[in-house]
From TrEMBL:
PANTHER family: ANKYRIN REPEAT DOMAIN-CONTAINING PROTEIN 39 HOMOLOG-RELATED, HETEROKARYON INCOMPATIBILITY DOMAIN-CONTAINING PROTEIN. Residues 60-82 are annotated as: Disordered. This is Heterokaryon incompatibility domain-containing protein. Transmembrane segments: none annotated. Residues 135-280 form the Heterokaryon incompatibility domain. It comes from the Eukaryota.
Length: 679
């Protein structure tokens, strides 16, 4: 027997042994069922809606201020529409002829690099013929403030970690007179501790998107600005010489292996991991480094993906005499271990594409993107991305709320609650359709994604993925009346089905994926409709980087055959041969922690349906009192995601997770809605 066949046979044997160990006297130890299948009975069908005095409901959040409720939030002017505090320009007759959007997009101040003078808007517009001149924006990590520079014509001390950094910025601008005008937040926004400065920041922070978009380029000054450019250039050469031309990994193993340290140093620079620099990454048209080369973020992302792939499939191994990296594990599922910042999500351009198409980026997508980034104050997690939001998501801001950590956390939570309330009261239900656990929330607030929940938005690596992002739900609406009160969100929903069976909590990795497929095979063999979960698993194969594009269809067909196998032996043989557990580990909506296989029954159908749900491990389904619910008012067959709830009171339910909707079920659902309270 050749080595490949021997390895495959060993895999089949191991998988078969694993499957047999999970069977307990003919029943499936992974799954729990109700003692007897019962007819579908909508839990609220016989209860009177008169118990809900909707007119009496009001929003009284724990940190709400007068006028800060959802009705007020929905009607508030956006931050972009705020009165321009501190900006008082007297216009002459010529200036009155300017287009209105010039002042709206023109920076309040620009720095004249040739003369080393800060000029206000009125002054520089007069010099440039009342047009916004070409200007450079500077993106730099403030870092630990060790110096307060006093610069001519600037009325406040300029906080900076190293004065040499300012010399580097100015040297780039003055070299060959390449830059006349420059905008930098520390210089062009009043940084003094005064009410006037706070008022100015409240106006300027939401406008920063105009400044970064309107600039000719963005000068990136990394934390390690002296060594970063050379390391970046080495990675560009590596990409051009090897990755982009598909050169042999084995033939170039020494160079590729030793370049791990270079890549680690570059992507580990603080510029990639600060909250405030994220919009500075997304908004500008071009990024340049102090030595003049273009910063190739797209190339760095592709390099990360490439390294993950060649380490995972075993193409790259430590060459003889190579450097020892304690965070590199070739051939393993977790090839890059914590705490290395080798996640690629913050280098991806999907957000930039969304920004270019819509002019803004969805709030919850941004929160997920910046969850692992660092900031001096908690409230910066929202203030630092405010320029990326749409007007309908913005609420008035108060930059002075960041005087200390505790008050900043309170300001962050208050701002977040007002944003969520504004979204819900406008009929947008995406805050309900994302995976967001907060078991320690106060009663009445479990329905709301909590921005300060521990580990809420962590990525799969490092640690467990506690939350999921589902962009397909961003446009879902519920046009029926909703109210926010102390006891929760009062909302009209459609009951999809009652959960009759569930698996144990399922984690991450190939072994855990085997549990999912094993449950699916068992439930298929016992007459359940497993089409929903099988389609999701097939989608996982299609999105896994462990399945080549020309192998996707064949893998999907083989998985379907395995899950419909007539015997445990046949199922085990097919699963072991194809190594589906490992392939599914890297599939979208499959990988990650906090999964459960759910078996549920819908009204008028005795055959249970099977889905793979996201259920947080701290909130298991309550058998018999667990329901799958549609929180939209849209045609049921168009809905993309449902929520999973436990009944906790006469008309009160608590969200414990979400599940991918299956359109054929939506087409046969009872379309009537019932009012409930989501606590």
């Amino acid at each position: 027997m050749d080595p490949e066949s021997e390895s495959r046979a060993e895999g089949v044997h191991k998988f078969g042994s694993w499957a047999l160990n999970n069977l307990q006297e003919g029943s499936l130890g992974l799954i729990t069922f109700r003692e007897a299948l019962q007819a579908f009975q909508p839990v609220l069908a016989t209860e009177s809606d008169s118990q809900l005095d909707l007119e009496a409901l009001h929003y009284t959040g724990s940190r709400s201020q007068p006028g800060a409720g959802p009705e007020a939030a929905a009607g508030l002017k956006s931050a972009d529409d705020a009165e321009p505090g501190g900006l008082n320009i007297e216009m002459n007759s010529e200036e009155h002829d300017l287009r209105e959007n010039v002042l709206a997009k023109a920076p309040l101040r620009l720095y004249d690099c040739e003369n080393e003078v800060l000029k206000d808007q009125q002054t520089y517009l007069q010099e440039t013929g009342h047009t916004i001149p070409p200007y450079l924006v500077v993106s730099q990590v403030w870092g630990e403030i060790k110096h307060q520079m006093i610069l001519p014509t600037i009325e406040w001390p300029v906080a900076i970690s190293d004065p040499a950094k300012w010399d580097t910025i100015l040297a780039y601008c003055k070299a060959g007179k390449r830059v006349k005008w420059m905008w930098m937040d520390a210089i062009c926004i009043n940084q003094s501790n005064s009410p006037e400065a706070d008022e100015e920041k409240a106006v300027e922070i939401p406008k920063m998107n105009h400044y970064y978009r309107g600039a000719t380029a963005c000068l990136v000054v990394p934390s390690n600005y002296l060594n970063f450019p050379l390391a970046h250039a080495q990675l560009v050469d590596l990409s051009c010489d090897i990755m982009d031309v598909n050169a042999s990994v084995q033939d170039n193993a020494p160079r590729i292996w030793e370049s791990i340290a270079v890549l680690d140093a570059v992507i580990g620079d603080e510029w990639f991991w600060r909250v405030w620099t994220y919009q500075e990454f997304l908004l500008p048209n071009k990024h340049i480094l102090p030595d003049g080369q273009e910063l190739r973020v797209d190339l760095l992302r592709r390099l990360l993906d490439w390294y993950h792939k060649i380490l995972r499939n075993g193409s790259l191994k430590k060459p003889q005499g190579g450097t020892d990296y304690n965070f590199i594990h070739p051939g393993k599922e977790l090839v890059i271990s914590v705490p290395r910042n080798w996640q690629t999500r913050n280098l991806r351009f999907q957000m930039k594409e969304e920004l270019e198409q819509n002019g803004h980026v969805n709030l919850i997508s941004l929160i997920w993107q910046i969850s692992h980034r660092q900031s001096m104050y908690p409230v910066d997690r929202l203030l630092g991305l405010y320029g990326l939001l749409s007007d309908e998501e913005k609420v008035p801001i108060n930059p002075s709320g960041a005087s200390d950590h505790n008050s900043s956390t309170a300001a962050l939570e208050s701002m977040w609650e007002r944003m969520m309330a504004k979204a819900i009261m406008s009929g947008r239900v995406w805050p309900l359709l994302h995976d967001s656990p907060e078991p320690d929330a106060v009663d009445g607030k479990h329905w709301m994604p909590h921005i300060t929940a521990p580990n809420l938005w962590n990525e799969r690596f490092p640690g467990a993925a506690l939350a999921g992002l589902h962009p397909e739900t961003l446009h879902h609406h519920n046009q029926k009346d909703m109210k926010i009160a102390d006891d929760g969100l009062h909302i009209a929903v459609r009951f999809v089905g009652c959960v009759m069976g569930m698996s144990t909590d399922i984690g991450d990795g190939g072994g855990e994926m085997n549990k999912i497929t094993f449950c699916t095979w068992f439930l298929t063999a016992n007459g359940c409709n497993t089409d929903p979960i099988i389609q999701q698993l097939q989608h996982g194969l299609a999105t896994s980087d462990m399945v080549a594009s020309n192998e996707i269809q064949g893998s999907q067909e083989a998985l379907f055959a395995a899950l419909h196998a007539s015997s445990l032996h046949h199922y085990s043989k097919l699963m072991g041969e194809m190594n589906f557990g490992r392939k599914l580990t890297y599939g979208n909506e499959i990988m990650g922690w906090n999964k459960r296989v759910l078996c549920f029954q819908i009204e008028g159908h005795r055959t249970p349906f099977v889905v793979l749900a996201w259920i947080h491990c701290s909130s298991p389904p309550k058998m018999g009192d667990c329901w799958i619910v549609d929180v939209t008012s849209e045609p049921a067959q168009t809905v993309r995601r449902w929520i999973v709830v436990n009944k906790v009171g006469p008309k009160t339910f608590r969200k414990i997770g979400t599940v991918r909707a299956w359109q054929p079920i939506g087409a046969i659902l009872n379309q009537s809605s019932m009012r409930i309270i989501l606590d």
